[in-house]
Design a protein that fits this description.
The chain is α+β, with helices and mostly antiparallel strands and 146 residues long. The chain has five helices and four strands.
């Protein structure tokens, strides 16, 4: 059996507290909890709803033939990426990334689906990738999906 360690440069390594920044934030929250529990709880909730690593790392340019379309539900904004050459009569497939991800992670799958005769639509959730805002909750995700 082999073991693998999480590197600090990987998203998983950052998410599971392998980075000095994550360890420092955890230490600060534990200290704040001793001094001001209500404030510490508010800070923890704020961090919990913020997709990390930050969305700035996902702000790469959209490569051709994909085109960006910004949309909003009235409360939150999200982004869709579509192929410019996709025919309208093809069956549409919505591809959605996971927490702290971005739409371009789904690009290889989207291109394979396009080659198989589908119209792929890649989605950046609110506060993810090219989506608007910095905080995201499950109700926001559900509204965006609908």
């Amino acid at each position: 059996m082999t073991t693998r360690s999480l590197s600090t440069s990987s998203a998983a390594g950052l998410a599971f507290g392998q980075s000095p920044l994550a360890r420092g934030a955890a230490l600060a929250l534990r200290a704040a909890d001793l001094l001001a529990p209500t404030l510490a709880a508010r800070c923890a909730v704020h961090l919990f709803f913020m997709p990390l690593p930050t969305k700035l790392s996902a702000r790469r340019s959209v490569p051709p033939p994909w085109q960006l379309e910004r949309m909003h539900t009235g409360r939150e904004g999200f982004a869709l990426l579509r192929l410019q050459s996709a025919a309208a009569d093809r069956p549409r497939v919505l591809l959605v990334h996971g927490w702290a991800g971005d739409a371009l992670q789904m690009r290889p799958l989207g291109e394979a689906l396009a080659g198989a005769g589908f119209e792929p639509v890649l989605m950046d959730l609110p506060a993810h990738g090219r989506g608007a805002g910095w905080r995201c909750t499950m109700p926001q995700i559900v509204r965006s999906l609908f």
